[in-house]
TrEMBL record:
It comes from Amycolatopsis heterodermiae. Keywords: Glycosidase, Hydrolase. Its EC number is 3.2.1.52. Residues 110-459 form the Glycoside hydrolase family 20 catalytic domain. Transmembrane segments: none annotated. InterPro entries: Beta_hexosaminidase_sua/sub, GH, Glyco_hydro_20_cat, Hex-like_dom2, HEX_bac_N. Coiled coil: none annotated. Belongs to the glycosyl hydrolase 20 family. Residues 3-105 form the Beta-hexosaminidase bacterial type N-terminal domain. It catalyses: Hydrolysis of terminal non-reducing N-acetyl-D-hexosamine residues in N-acetyl-beta-D-hexosaminides. This is beta-N-acetylhexosaminidase.
Length: 503
């Protein structure tokens, strides 16, 4: 069995092999140059048999056809994205020789993403490059960067230097789950320049991955308020960058200065990231401070709202409209399935609490990214043994593989055609409260990212036994790529956790 992950839609084996050890010639037709460059970086360049990449009409947006014979290889797609996927299939077939075969392959869902939280723990830029390569290998096409939160601001913004001078650094970090009284006493921080992020965007694009930034608003902004207290509801109270996990009660004020800040940051963020989608957070926003803030009360009164809590939906609507003016599509977290009218109908929602909420959002006319925490939060323990992250719910490899983003026959939608409601895709979440280093991220990510790749890409029913058989060989490739930590790492505050029943 070939160790291909995700499983191709159609594969037919033939006898014989295409040898790589004597050198090959990678030939690119018009428009195939970047995919050919990516393949050349893997197989090298020589004067042996030919590998030809061509763009031809007739296939789907990410579909490709791959034909491996003993004397030549042809890879054909209608769009560059299909060629990139075909190159990743070739990478997985081996380093010395490829079995003769014919593959016709296409994804089940258009949005196949991985969120990496660099706000709770800053990750080195070189690791972001490496991680992008790894998700592309598994045919993910979205890297969702969670760039801002209570514990850190990681994005350089012109004209607002304190965001990175102050907001990017905290004095220490909590050890253990939210509510712990233990702290490590170690300062932590870092940020990315605009040039560094543009370089990452270009690197990702040359592998068929788009980088979707997230600026979390109007909650999860303690780091921004530490830099600029005047943006909050108590401008006279200096705040440090938050050192705890969980949800800070400090949120943006609803005055013009705070709204101008949001517009400025989103405009500059859109100037760095060309992705059509831009995530504005919107989750876990305690609105208590607005109840006594004069600006928030005046705003609610002027808008005719029953109370200040309604400002949350109004605020997200303002961001949605503003991003629309910039030619971008706003994405927000959806916690409840929401009531009709509480979110703009055109807003894309990422449903994280419950898959049922995602189904409700589809029914109310939204395009939805399915991200239920029970199946896609990879900061959760993988086993109920010791040394795992201090989280209660265990999400095993089998749990992830069994997950179906379209359960209940939900309709599929195209994220690049904003309009028709449905599921545009799914994504994994790698929150980093308890993952301070790249090795912690690697251990959390794999092999569960392999399982979710199948849920997002491969058609038909799940075959866990077949997946495990393919994974055994695929893990050898991941080890060769240093995608797995060389030895098992222990997570800060790790404790044995009893497994909770899944519902």
């Amino acid at each position: 069995m070939l160790p291909l992950i995700p499983r191709p839609a159609e594969l037919a084996r033939r006898s014989g092999f295409f040898a790589l050890h004597n050198g090959v010639r990678v030939v690119a037709g018009p428009g195939a140059g970047r995919a050919a460059d990516l393949l050349t970086s893997v197989v090298g360049s020589g004067h042996g048999p030919e590998i030809r990449l061509d763009l031809r009409p007739g296939l789907g947006p990410e579909e490709y056809e791959l034909d491996v014979a003993e004397d030549r290889v042809t890879l054909v797609a209608t769009r560059e994205a299909g060629l990139f996927h075909g190159v990743q299939t070739l990478r997985q077939l081996g380093a010395d020789q490829w079995p003769c075969l014919r593959i016709r392959d296409r994804p089940k869902l258009a949005w196949r993403g991985v969120l990496l939280d660099v706000a709770r723990h800053f990750m080195p830029l070189e690791f972001l490059y490496e991680f992008t390569d790894l998700i592309a290998l598994h045919k993910y096409n979205v890297l969702h960067l969670h760039l801002t939160d209570d514990q850190g601001w990681r994005l350089e913004i012109e004209g607002r230097p304190k965001l990175t001078e102050i907001g990017a650094w905290r004095s220490e970090s909590m050890v253990g789950a939210a509510g712990s009284t233990l702290f490590d006493g170690v300062p932590h921080g870092g940020f990315y320049t605009r040039a560094e992020l543009r370089g990452l965007v270009a690197h990702a694009a040359a592998r068929g991955v788009r980088v979707v930034p997230e600026i979390d608003l109007p909650g999860h902004v303690r780091a921004a308020l530490a830099a600029y207290p005047e943006l909050g509801n108590h401008p006279d109270r200096p705040l440090p960058v938050w050192t705890e996990w969980g949800i800070s009660p400090d949120i943006l004020g609803m005055h013009d200065e705070a709204l101008d800040f949001c517009r400025d940051v989103l405009t500059q963020t859109a100037g760095i990231f060309p992705s059509r989608h831009l995530h504005v957070g919107g989750d876990e926003c305690p609105t208590t401070q607005w109840e006594t803030a004069p600006a928030a009360r005046d705003r609610a009164r002027a808008l005719g709202l029953d109370g200040t809590a309604g400002l949350h939906s109004w605020f997200l609507g303002e961001l949605h409209g503003f991003l629309g003016e910039l030619g971008r599509q706003a994405v927000c977290w959806d916690e409840t399935g929401h009531s009709p009218g509480t979110l703009p109908s055109g807003m894309t929602v990422a449903s994280w609490r419950d898959a049922g909420h995602g189904a409700q959002a589809v029914a109310r006319g939204h395009q939805v990214i399915m991200a239920p925490h029970t199946s896609t939060y990879f900061d959760y323990p993988q086993t109920d043994g010791p040394g795992e992250p201090p989280r209660e719910l265990v999400t095993t490899l089998a749990d992830v593989h069994a997950y179906d983003p379209l359960a209940g026959n939900l309709p599929v939608a195209d994220p690049d055609n904003g309009g028709r409601p449905g599921v545009v895709g799914t994504q994994a979440q790698l929150w980093t409260e308890h993952a301070p280093t790249p090795d912690h991220v690697r251990q959390l990510a794999f092999p569960r990212l392999c399982a979710l790749a199948e849920s997002a890409w491969s058609p038909g029913p799940r075959d866990y036994a077949g997946f495990q058989a393919r994974l055994a060989g695929h893990l050898d490739l991941l080890r060769a790529l240093n995608a797995l930590p060389k030895e098992r790492v222990r997570f800060p505050g790790a404790v044995p956790v009893p497994r909770k029943p899944r519902t």
